[in-house]
Amino acid sequence: MKTRTILLFLIVGFSSCKMDDAAKQREAIVVRELVLLRTEGLALAEFVGAKSLDADVIQLGEQLRAYYQQTHPDFLQACTGSQIDLNDADFDSLWTNISDRFVSDDQSMESLCLQLCDENIRASIKLYEDIIRTRESEKISYFSFIALPDLYNQQQQLHKVRSHFRAQQMQISW
Question: Three-state DSSP class for 108?
């Protein structure tokens, strides 16, 4: 009887360790995705400021930059203790991808800025919603819950700027 109890205790103990390891791996993947999306968003804000000539688009880039700067301390706190498997090559690749999109695309610069920012915001919203839905990490879920409304606001602002920009383009073509 004692042997069975000890064996059962060991099996339960090892399976919970495996579950903890799996949860930590999933958390590390989520944190990695968050870091990359946030870095991409900040880089896009920088490119928008440097490449766009439209005042509304530039202001949108400034608002995005402010969002990432304001939420950064809370993000760092939420990720404290999480393993982040990133290196300089990951960031170089991210920067190169963004740079290449700005060089090789034949859209107007403002349209491209808005499109890339929209893609980043949509991906970020989806990830934050998934994090909240799964509730695997309490700290990261709480941060997502706090950060998500501002992303919705950024998305709404982007759509207003895009509509205004399209209206301007239509007036110019007439």
Answer: coil
pLDDT in tens, 43-77: 999 988 888 888 999 999 999 999 999 999 999 99
Give per-residue pLDDT as tens, 152-164.
Answer: 999 999 999 988 8
For residues 80 and 78, give the distance between their C-alpha atoms in angstroms, rounded to a whole number: 6
Q: How would you classify residue 135: left for phi > 0, otherwise alpha for psi between -120 and 50, otherwise beta? A: left
Q: How far apart are CA 21 and CA 52, in angstroms?
A: 45
Neighbours of 104 (CB within 10 A): 7
The number of C-alpha atoms within 13 Å of 121 and in the hemisphere containing its C-beta is 25
* Inter-CA distances, 81 with 131, 137, 147, Å: 17, 12, 20
Task: Domains for the chain: give ranges and CATH numbers.
Answer: 27-173 (1.20.1260.10)
Residue 161: is it exposed, middle or buried by C-beta count within 10 angstroms (0-12/13-18/19+)? buried
- Residue range 76-81: average pLDDT? 89
For the record, the structure tokens of 34 come out as 């968050």
pTM (whole model) above 0.70 = yes
- Please, what is the end-to-end C-alpha distance for the chain in angstroms? 89
